[in-house]
Specification:
The chain has eight helices and twelve strands. The chain is 32% helix and 17% strand.
Amino acid sequence: MDGSRVAVIIEDDQDIRELIKVVLAQSGFEVHTAGTGAAGVEAVRSHRPAVVTLDLGLPDIDGFEAARRIRLFSDCYIIMLTARGDELDTLLGLETGADDYLTKPFRPRELRARVGALLRRPRQGAVAGQGTAAPVAGVGAAVGAGPAPSGTPSPSGASAPSGTPAGLGAGTPAPSAAVEHPPAQEGLLVHSGLCLNGAMRTAEVDGTELELTRTEFDLLLAVMEGGKRVLSKAELVRRLRGEGYDVGSYISDSDERTIEVHMANLRRKLGDDPRSPRWIKTVRGIGYRLAV
């Protein structure tokens, strides 16, 4: 079966395990289950699933440790499930590599919806055109084919000098943008020493590659693409769900707090000081934008 329709359930409670299995099987997944953390890690290694549901309270290693081990070799989507609703648990779960978090008891429809939202997001290493966010207004030449080669004819028939974006005459100034002009490479965003490749899904700061989770990368990509435009927390939640616009879906306070946690983790990995940001500026009470 296609790996994008394979799921692993790591859960020690048999009733809950069977419930999740039914939900995912009805959604078209080939489902494998494990009752311990160690067995679950090996099931992920063997079956290479797209989605893993991971209980925190396992009898051997806890869900945090299981997530850490899984992240050493897999970029699957991890949804953590727990009866504990403490904010600290949420924070630890997201820091260890989880993509989403559900508190027991949960509604089967909500689990199904969250799995669907995760699958609409691009996987690690996705190529351009397969779910990678498209260029948007506000970053101008920061995304796309980059500068035209030397000698490329402009619409007027004259040759544009080397480094002049295609479509601009020799005497026409390039449009201003919050993000700096990158080298000629599809999907590249560059700003203040941060280089983000949306096609290859890689990020570097001053030449050093960052180890970002899928969610952290998607949030950073959204901020870089947004430029000076403020992105609300609700808008970022919809972005992570794969909703291109507001379709009226419910966004809870917990969803918005999750964005805050992911942003805090992202800033830590970037080495970005929120009091004097180099890349991500918090707009109090609203959301985030690129620091320019």
